[in-house]
Amino acid sequence: MLGKEKVHFNLARLKKGGENFEVVIDPDLAVKFRRGEDIDLREVLKSEHVFSEAKKGLRASEKRMQELFGTEDELKVAEEILRKGEIQVTEEFREEQREMLRKQIINLISRNAVDPKTGYPHPPQRIEAAIEEAKAKIDYSKSAEAQVKDVVKQIQTVLPIKFENVIVELRIPARHAVKVYGILKNYGEILSEEWLSDASLSTRLRMPAGLQQQFFDAINKITKGEIDSKITRE
User: Fold this and answer.
1) Which of 65, 194, 221, 222 is the most buried if burial means most Cβ atoms within 10 Å?
2) Strand, helix or coil at 74?
3) CATH number for the domain including 173?
4) Which residues constitute the domain of residue 34?
5) Is residue 178 included in any domain, yes or no?
6) Is the pLDDT of residue 8 over 70?
7) What distance in Å separates the CA atoms of residue 154 and residue 229, rounded to the nearest whole number?
8) How far apart are CA 167 and CA 144, in angstroms?
């Protein structure tokens, strides 16, 4: 969890056997490490030492580390502190993280969920207002991807919204086919593709319903509208 104590530098802290064990950290990397991203432990640590009280520069006892962690290796102890302890960060960093995570969640909802009445995505401003109105809870120790579905469930009380995929079938003339094919995977999963005898492309694509407008804007920019398309909901 992200600790609420006011601090002037960033720590990870674990209490074990009635004693404190602390490491000084890079907060961005520590949060990513905690979420399971592939981050080198040494990059997370501002110092490879383990402290009993970092702000006073007091090092942890090797004897107590051996007794409580089963090792005197400070890197191994630091890893356990990061994985199991409390991440203490400055208020400024905490606010930056909150704002960034909110924006990520709003963007994911806008891209992947739609108004079931219209089939079109809600604008980000409307989603943000719904989060406020529903008092949706956001867990700032989790990634946006890990909780976006839960946030949508919370705001469904004030905003008609659901996750939905669509199947897009395209027939693209030969003169545009190669360029269009190059961007298809940016928007969804290619279910089938067939290059026809006249070098045109016939393809089926599954994508989040919220990406439809953005997808067709990109396709029409390339083809000037010279495509045949059909959309069905899953």
Assistant:
1) 65
2) helix
3) 3.30.70.240
4) 11-87
5) yes
6) no
7) 35
8) 25
Amino acid in the structure at residue 69? F
CA atoms of 234 and 232, how far apart (whole Å): 7
> Is there a single domain that holds both residue 99 and residue 45?
no
pLDDT tens column, 203-229: 999 999 888 888 999 999 999 999 999
Alpha-carbon gap, residue 230 to 212, rounded angstroms:
12
Residue 122's nearest CA partner among 160, 90, 94, 74 is 160
b/e per residue 195-215 (b: at least 16 CB within 10 A): eeeeebbebbbebbbbbbeeb
- How many Cα atoms within 13 Å fall on the side-chain side of residue 93? 21
Q: Are residues 25 and 9 in contact, defined by beta-carbon separation less than 8 angstroms?
A: no
CA 15 → CA 22, 56, 72, 83, distances in Å?
Answer: 9, 17, 17, 13
> What's at 222, amino acid-wise?
I
Q: What is the overall mean pLDDT for the chain? A: 90
Residue 88's SS3 state is: strand
> What six digits make up the tokens of 184?
């298809």
Residue with tokens 């495509």: 227
Q: Rounded to two decimals, what is the model's pTM?
A: 0.62
Q: How far apart are CA 65 and CA 53, in angstroms?
A: 14
Distance CA 77, CA 75 (A): 5
